[in-house]
Specification:
The complex is a heterotrimer. Chain A is an all-alpha fold. Chain A is built from 22 helices and no strands. By secondary structure, chain B is of the alpha/beta class. Helices cover about 45% and strands about 15% of the residues of chain B. Chain B contains 12 helices and 10 strands. Chain B has helices at about 1-20, 30-45, 55-65, 80-90, 100, 160-190, 200-205, 215-225, 260-270, 270-280, 300-305, 315-325, and strands spanning about 25-30, 50-55, 75-80, 115-130, 155, 190-195, 210-215, 230-235, 245-250, 285. In chain C, the strands form 4 sheets. In chain C, strands 6-7-8-3-9-10 form a 6-stranded mixed beta sheet, sandwiched between helices. In chain C, strands 13-17-14-15-16 form a 5-stranded antiparallel beta sheet, with no helix packed on it. Chain C has a 4-stranded antiparallel beta sheet with strand order 2-1-4-5, with helices on one face. Classes of the chains: A mainly alpha, B alpha/beta, C alpha+beta. Chains in contact: A-B, A-C.
Chain lengths: ~575, ~325, ~375
Amino acid sequence: MNARRPHLLLLLPALLAVLGVLLPLAYLALRALGAEGSELREIVFRARNLELLANTLLLTLGVLAGTTLIALPLAYLAARTTLRPRRLLMLLGVLPLAIPGYVGAYALIAASGAGGTIDALTGIRWPGPGGYWGALGVLTLFTFPYLFLNLHAALRAQDPALEDAARLLGRTPWQTFREVTLPYLRPAWLSGALLIALHVLGDFSVVSLMRFPTFSAAIYQQYTAAYDRVYSAWLALALLLVTAAALLLEARLMRGVRLSRVSPGGTRPPRTVSLGRAAPLAWAFLGVLAGAALIVPLGTIGYWLRLETNPFAWSGLWEAFRSALGAAAIAAVTTTALAFPLAYIGSRHSGPLARLTERAAYLGYATPPLAFALALVFFTLRVVPSLYQTFTLLIAAYTLHFLAEAVGPVRTSLQTATPRLEEAGRLLGLSAAQTLRRVTIPLVRPGLLVSAAFVFLSVLKELPLTLLLSPIGFETLSRNVWAYTEEAQYASAAPYALALALSGALLTLLILRREDRRAPRASRPPVSTPPPAPIPPVPTQTDSAPLRHSREDTACGSIPRNPSAVPTRVRSD
Amino acid sequence: MKRTLLAVTALLLAGTSLAQTRTLTVYSGRAKTFVDPVVQQFERQTGIRVNVRYGTDAQLVAAIREEGSKSPADVYWGNSVGALGELAEEGKFTKLGTALTRNVSSDYLPDDRSWLPTTVRFRTLAYHTGKIKPETLPDSILDLPKMTSLKGRIGWTVSYPSFQDFLAAMISRYGEATTRQWIEGMKALQPRDYKTSNVGMLEAMRAGEIDVALTNHYYIQRVNRLSYPIDTYFFKNGDIGNLGNATGAAILKTSKNSASAARFLSALVAKDAQTFFLSVNFEYPVTGNILQPTTMLPYSDVSKRSPRIDPTALPKNIDKAQKLLRDAGLL
Amino acid sequence: MTHTRSHRPARTAGPATDPLTRPATLELEGVCKRYAPGLPPVVDDLNLQVHSGELLTLLGPSGCGKTTTLRLIAGLERPDSGEIRIDGRSVTAPFAPPERRGVGLVFQDYALFPHLTVLGNVLFGLRHLPRHDRLPRARQTLSLVGLTVFETRRPDQLSGGQQQRVALARALAPRPSLLLLDEPFSNLDAQLRHSTRQEVRAILRRAGTTAILVTHDQEEALAFSDRLVVMRGGRVEQSGPPHEVYARPGTAFVANFLGRSNLLGGTADRFMARTALGVLPLSEAASGPVLVSVRPEHLTFTDDPQGTPVTIVAREFKGHDVTYTVRLDNNQELLVHVPGDTVRPEGSAARVSVTHPARAVPSSG
């Protein structure tokens, strides 16, 4: 192991990540608190603030409940039942992630109401989504994959012996689920829930389209409709406080949770149950979910695409596509490059400094993007005006915001590339630099690729930073979808939305496949979570010795009485 | 690794230097659909490259304020008298030469010639023709809050600059107390707020979400082309609800390109551009000799319906209007 | 919630005089199990009886079906055919789920609930008891395994041996009529394994529990059980008291698997057999072609010119004794197990002789 204290050069990126986020935020705070006393009092004690707070909290809680109601059954169906094909369930659990919330909201709004897609195709007037339930529904449909991936991985990784033990100690299957499985899922739920909470707190687009005023929606409204920026700054500060509270709450709930696999030794794959007569019910659930989260949005985009007549909408598509891909590619490289030293310190060093360094990555991720963008605008104009409205600033903002997504996969792959391998490299005559190049980097390359892909996908979908920080004339897919949707020009938004959804889906599939190959038994959550998810690492499967039967015996020639109870893998003891 | 980093750095630097190339920078509160064709023609005719930053009026006003002397903007093209007036009052604009203002109708040209009107629009009430008989609608917008039968069926756009201009005009004419009362009265009817999206509001009217909506005249003209069941209702002549309001452009004092900027402004009031605004968006021209579609009331007719409000009085009331909206919990 | 679990008081019965005279706690009759149609059966027409208070060991190599047998008894798998009876009551027709069988199981990796304390783990199976009886019972069981001071700890704060004992306490606390142990010592290091095994055996004896131990470790099987069942290919290969099975392996497989054994081809004539080691006395009469099993410890080096000449191929020094691999003239290799006081160099020539009567086993595959 290297020296406990990481090299100063390695610490530099961490410092950069922390300062890059904290300095603008500090400036934002100064700005918010810098108002005159009476004005400040008037702002802070505005009755509206309380309403915004209540709305923000209610929405966050509602989405957490909604996503759990979707993700838990889906994860259970995929991980623990014989429902097939499992790939289909996985796709359904992951693909909605490719559709940004504002595209989903756009699609559901354009699908419903008089003259909407559903009305036009079937004559049924589905009521248009709006307000609390509209925002809740859309955010739930397009964020539940965060929770699904975490819960699914945990359900796959749980030692089936725990449930067997509970059954043998007198619990029915349902009691076993409640008393053993659910507590086991708690940390996975918490880290997924935190991601979703951060997402809901930071989202301004869906709530704006649904006309449900939350802190983020209000910041955006102030930003677009009022000349006075002090109130925006104040709202952003309030949002930061709510976010900090969510982080603290999660950390507190996570404390003392010890669910690491206690015992040594191998494990068998989780037991799967046959649904029997409940199978049609499960299929109905899957059908409704697929309809709401995938078929209706994509179908609606396709429908409006046909109606598109605005020539500008088409002519700008290629440029927007190129800009979006370009920005996403560059941000993917810079973010992964910055993530590498952070992950390296996190996995190779110990002590509070190393822990702090790794946590630094999560600071930018947890900061609501709208507040961060606003802070960056204020900050650059006053302190580094030459950066204002430059591509460099946009990329820097993406990098700082998405750093956390890149750290996770790199660190996972660094753990497979153990220090022993580096030591072996050194003993075989390589210098430290050569070892890095010829041993470490080839070993972590898959992790780097996954990191880059995550960041690429996220930047492609990103809206608030792009909206506020893009250089003049820089048009992306997300900006166009937003601009046209805000003006209810659904047909014009359609080509951009489609390009976004398709490239997102393609990327998601690629990541999923890659992760599949890497960890065939449990796909890891694609987004690493602020406190690294304490999902126990899945040990490699114990050798499955071939059954030593030389002869086919007639005594057991009959077909098993209960064919559905056949496990996926033949056990060998 | 090192090579990748180098490449990225090079790319980033390239991005920065590109942004610093000499071009005309326009901050536009007007939508891309209206701006882009005019800009493209201007670029073709003059060879001057134009960069446009789009946003809402408020966004851009705030940006120009934040940016101060470092603002990259040469031209501000605003959607509302309020926004233009705010910046004019802060002395952000240069005084325009008479060469530019000579051919423009004096109705909306500010006395200090700080900005140039480009088009004129009118506030109106849009109504669903299948659900509302126009004779049941009130003579004055001040009486709209009394229409309890419309409870929950009214749409408005609180964040939209023209709406805030209209409130500012109401404050100029009737004072803050009356305006506050009107806002409270409207709020009791639980209107739906479509933020800045008039198109979205009229889409919602077609979808049956609302029956009447406070909007600008051209939005109704636009959807009429698509034969939506929506028509225009003007209040009685001179009513504040029929407020005429200009869009306009100005040259910033901080501009290092004022000659190109002046050429751009003159292009906006040239016949090509004026015809374009009329044809694509049904906005009234500010210069004479432009043919008008028959579906629109003639300018002379509609301008009679608008109240006479001193445009320079609007800006200082915008802040008051926004405060009233905030006090009511609407903004 | 109804429990049909039977709870018997702890008996003070010591080691049974003759387990066969006591009633059968568990009976398996013609039990078959295969995991998928087309695959060979894992458990194949298995018949087994376990008597009250008996400590039985299922021994066999990986894949012989012993763990599956355990899971069938526990109700974690359903047999394809055959019947299982616990305390004379069928649990297969109709199928009784695990929670209704009153069977305890100690898992190979313990399967302690990580979200519960040691006490919580032990209390987990006591839900059926009146509330005021639960805590005393849990503490009593913990004291049985000597872990009372650790009751507030979490499983991950315990050592492997302690976890093992918590797992045992958790399984014993409900006083199951039958306790199953699935390779419970395999995750402990050699020294701990030895002491824990003795402790567990003592605890089970004290509690008078009927228990089935599954293992692939012959030493463990010989040391732990009253009765040994050697399994192979899902069937019982041989069953009996450990010393008997060891001394008189019924098949070449058992001879080879249970302790290391030298198997030599030969021809038997009553109590004598002709083999590569010369003519050897047999413990039981046989005739015709046989495999003769000679235990390594029944071979010794000799200076007697009558001894069979061998070459020493390898030496494995184990402290108190040494195992040599020697090669006969016909190239067959044998193991010789002798006290470690003299050391013979590898490659040297020597002579060996047989000290005990050998055993002939049927020469079947």
